[in-house]
Amino acid sequence: MANKPGILTNCPWACLGNLKYLVLAPFACHSIYTFFMSKDESERDMFFILLLPLTLFRMVHYQTWISLSRYRTAKGNNRILDKSIEFDQVDRESNWDDEIILFGLVYYIGYLILEQAHHMPMWRTDGIVITALLHIGPVEFLYYWLHKALHHHFLYSRYHSHHHSSIVTEPISAVVHPFVEILAYYTLFGLPVITTLFTGTASIASIGAYVIYIDFMNLMGHCNFELIPKWMFSVFPPLKYFMYTPSYHSLHHTQFRTNYCLFMPLYDYIYDTVDKSSDTLYEKSLEREAEVPDVVHLTHLTTLESIYHLRLGFASLASKPHASKWYMLLMWPVTIWSIMLTWIYDYTFVVERNLFKNLKLQTWAIPKYRVQYFMQWQRESINNMIEKAIVEADQKGIKVLSLGLLNQEEQLNNNGELYLRRHPQLKVKVVDGSSLAVAVVLNSIPKGTSQVVLRGRLSKVANSIALVLCKGGIQVVTLDEEDYKRLKAKLTPEAATNLVLSKSYNVSKTWLVGDGLSKDEQLKAPKGTLFIPYSQFPPRKVRKDCFYFNTPAMIAPKHVENVDSCENWLPRRVLSAWRIAGILHALEGWNEHECGDMILDTQKVWKASLEHGFCPLTKTFVA
User: Fold this and answer.
1) Which of 126, 164, 240, 249 has the fewest CB atoms within 10 Å, measured from its CB?
2) Any idea where the Fatty acid hydroxylase domain is (predicted)?
């Protein structure tokens, strides 16, 4: 929002929320009906029916640039600015699609009002030439002076400062403006379209190509990585006056008083407003190589919808805890395509980059869904991908690699021990994060608790929790005889006296739960029970009279930068214990792996997490 929001800052349909797309529905339905149902051939118009596909294509075009930009800036090669993006920017730019809705309305209504827009030819060369000349001349010239006017303190404080709130831009930053400012731009961009319509030279190709050209240049200029090759300017030197680069426009967002042009620096050169460091930044960005992090967290896809919740997916969804949305069903063709891709693509990819003081962090993802980890015939492929990632990290000189979610599954690789046996000379420290997960669960148990129920599939974390509690004099109640026998075998005789096998579900209101906790078992728990997960995945919440804790996690300190997405189902700026464990391992310089049966001193790990600014996530969540 601008410093002093002026009139017509918000779009008229802002009050509709997620239903705002309905404003286009009558026009879209009318175009489809007249084209396919009308018996009168004169009412069937190719341009009218193509407006809906063009509008949808623009959304896909935008999303493609968002994903590409986030991927490239996470890797680091050719990145222009290192400054972080935070949740406030993501929220501010979440209405980027308002511009596309306005586009649909303007063109639908324009078509219905202007007879000249009816039955245009598919192609007219003269119309394309006129459109190009009008853009180079009046549009670029008028935009330059409009842009300078918007930097006057009166208009800047009321309107344009909203756009400049994003110092580090993303592609969608290009269209995030107050409503009245977008109207002004549409008036400018409409000059070539209106002119060709009234001169009878307009065509579907000239209008469509001009819209796509504006989108391409606008999105490219805000992507925060340099991609225009140097040879283009070497082959045709005058091109520097007719095509800007992402680094050129990035300087406008950092310096404010230079590089005002729309897409063509011509008028910046004429009026001497070119930033003197434009060429230097361009060359520096082109030469920049991919970043080598200090710590990598290796995760994977979870539900079929999780592909959209990745940071590389939909920015607004990634900025909120993962939750199923009904409208994601509309994406089923893309979902099926992504599933097919996971069968053939066997390389990890960079999802996110963060900075913890001077420690560079990255998150890599295995392109496999959770369900694939339980398919016997997929396990070898998954293990190979994890192994490749560890070897790659070792070759790059990365200090620590932490295994997230099912990448450390005991039945898959024995909590990562498999890779240490295969590569005993690894310099990168492989961490499964179990010690911190144990510490978080232990410190989530209310003080004064004398008895807990341990329910769910036993794991390395569960076994360690039971051992610490029993040694500390707290009774651990199991409801399954096999679990009781397995736990007892791992305890000393003295500690085993605090392990209890019970048939009653009412023995305690503190339940430590893992994978496999059933709905029936939750329903048998007493009212007011605290369900504290020790597993990677949260239990399904079925009780409204009980409290559900998050999976082991902690709140990140403020100096963890570039946090603009949520880690799966966790709240904002909350990181899983397994992810934090890798960071702590690097910060503390611990020179040992944490894999297989290895558990670090939980008190030492917990103390280190607090000393480095991580805070306990004490809040509980009702189903």
Assistant:
1) 126
2) 134-273
Burial pattern 317-327, b for ≥16 Cβ within 10 A else e, equals bbbbebeebee
For residues 452 and 475, what is the distance between their CA atoms, to the nearest angstrom? 6
**pLDDT value at position 592?**
94
What's the whole-model pTM score? 0.93
- Residue 323 is predicted with a pLDDT of 85
Structure confidence at residue 344 (pLDDT): 87
Per DSSP bridges, beta strands 499-501 and 475-478 are parallel
**pLDDT < 70: residue spans in the chain:** 1-3, 618-623
- Amino acid letter, residue 314: F
Residue 33: strand, helix, or coil: helix
Residue in 155, 147, 139 with CA at minimum distance from that of residue 256: 147
Taking each helix axis as running N to C, give the angle between helix 246-255 and helix 278-287, from 0 to 180 degrees, rounded to the nearest 10: 120
The whole-angstrom separation of Cα 139 and Cα 147 is: 12
Three-class SS of 297-348: EEEECCCCCHHHHCCCCCHHHHCCCCCCCHHHHHHHHHHHHHHHHHHHCCCC
| pLDDT for residue 490 | 86
Q: What's the confidence (pLDDT) of residue 621?
A: 47
| Other C-beta atoms lying within 10 Å of the C-beta of residue 180 | 15
| pLDDT tens-digit map of 446-469 | 999 999 999 999 999 999 999 999
Angle between helices 481-490 and 460-471 (to 10 degrees): 70
